[in-house]
Amino acid sequence: MKILPLLTLAASVSLLAGCIWAPGQHMSTGKLVRDGNADNSHVQLVQITPKLLAMDQASEQSAAVPPALLAYQPQPYRIGAGDTLYITVWDHPELTSPAGPQQQPLANGRLVRSDGTLFYPYVGQLKVEGMTIEQLRQAISNKLATYIEKPQVDVSVIGYGSQHVTLSGAFVKTDPQPITAVPLTLAQAIGVATINTQDANLSNLVLTRDGQTYHINLDKLDHGKDLARAIYLKPGDRLYLPYNDRQEAYVLGEVTHPMAIPFKTSDLTLTQALGRAGGLSQTTSKGKSVYVIRGAKNIENEPATVYQLNAHSPAAFALADHFQVQPGDVVFVGAAGVTRWNRFLSQVLPLTSALSAAASSHYYLDKSN
Fold first, then answer.
1. Domain containing 56 — which CATH number?
2. Is residue 134 part of a domain?
3. Model confidence over 67-99: pLDDT tens digits?
4. Within a 10 A sphere around the Cβ of 62, how many other Cβ atoms?
5. Phi-psi sector, 91: left (phi>0), alpha (psi -120 to 50), beta
6. C-alpha dihedral over 204, 208, 212, 218, to 10 degrees?
7. Which domain, by its residues, includes 195?
8. Which residues have C-beta within 8 Å of that of residue 205, sequence separation ≥ 6?
9. Do residues 230 and 308 touch, judged by C-beta distance below 8 A?
C-alpha cells in the first residue's frame, strides 16, 4: 500500500475544499450581500462617521426634560381628609392643648375627618378640606372673635395623610411619600426612596401625572443642570423605575467573550461594549466587519438599521467611543477569511493525523514482515 500518494491526495482535497468552503455574508453600503446575491429589503447599512455622531449628539441634546414638568409650580398646601392639624390660640391653653400641655402635640391635634370637616370649640364644625393653612387660620380667627377679643391664631399641619406620591419598581423603599407644606422635588423623592443601583434602569424613569406619562433619563438629567431639583411633584404623581433585566445589548461573533450586557444607564458606548466582551479576537476577527444591528425585533414591519465601524485603524475606536449602544442592539464582529480557512483545517487535521498514524503503523508492519 502506497501511503504517500494518499496523503498527497488528502492534502489536495483539503486545499480545494478550503478554497470553495466560505459560505457566509458581508455588508456593503445600503444592502446585505449573501453568497453573491443582494437583498436590501430588510436591512439598511449606515457607516459610523463623525457626521453621523454629530447628528446623534444634536438630537440627544434636543430631547430635554418634558417642558410640562419644568413648568409646573406647586401651589400653597391645601388641607385634606386624614391630615392632623395643631391649632394654637395664644393665651388660651384650654383651646390649644385640651389634653394638657404636658402631652405630645399629636395628642392635642385635630384630625380632619373623612368628610373633610373638623370640630373646634366656639367655632363648631368647619368644612376645611380644600382650604389653605392661611384660609383656615383666618376662618377660625373670625369665628373666635365673637368670644375672644382680637384672637391670635396659628395653624400648622403635624400629620400629613391626604396627599401622596407613590413609588414602585427598582427602589429600596417604595413607601408612599407625603406631599407637605414644603414642596417635594423629584430629587428629594428619589433620595428618600433610594435607587437600587444594581438592578435599576436609570435611563427610563416613568412619571405618570393626570393620565399623562413622561419618560425621564435620570442618568442624563443632572449632567451639570441640576434639573431633578427643578421638577416639583404633584399630589397623585406615580413614579416607576424599571428593572434592567430586560434591557440588554448582545455582543456576538469574533470577540473574546460573547455576552449579553445589561443596561444600568444609557451611556454604553460601542467601545465599552466591545471592551466588556474582551475586545476583538486578534487572530480571528475582521476589523472591517464590526456591525451594530438595531431594530431587528421589528424587522417584519420595517427595515433594521445596521451601523458599520471600520476598525482596521485605531482611530476608528475614537468614533466607537462616541457611538451609543441602545437596549436590544446586537453588536456583531465578523470573521476574517483566514479564520474560516483555519476552522476548516481544524476539522481536517485530525483526519490527516489519523491517516499519518495509520501509514506509520502500516510501514512498520511491512518492515517487520
1. 3.10.560.10
2. yes
3. 889 899 999 999 999 999 999 999 998 888 876
4. 7
5. left
6. -30
7. 163-241
8. 215, 216, 217, 218, 239, 240, 241
9. no
Task: Assess whether 257 and 331 both reside in one domain.
Answer: yes
Is 0.70 surpassed by the pTM of this model?
Answer: no
Contact (Cβ atoms closer than 8 angstroms) between residue 145 and residue 161:
no
- Residues 23 and 18: their CA atoms lie apart, in Å, by 11
The sign of the CA dihedral 276, 281, 285, 287 is positive
Residue 122 exposure: Cα atoms within 13 Å on the Cβ side: 16
Contacts of 161 (CB under 8 A, 6+ apart): 80, 81, 82, 83, 84, 178
Alpha helices in the chain (DSSP H): 3-20, 50-62, 67-71, 93-96, 133-144, 186-193, 218-221, 270-276, 316-320, 337-368
> What's the rounded Cα separation, in Å, for the pair 129 and 109?
16
User: What size, in residues, is the chain?
Assistant: 369
Q: Say if residue 137 is in the same domain as residue 186.
A: no
> How many other β-carbons are positioned within 10 Å of the β-carbon of residue 367?
7
- Read off the C-alpha cell for 329: 442592539
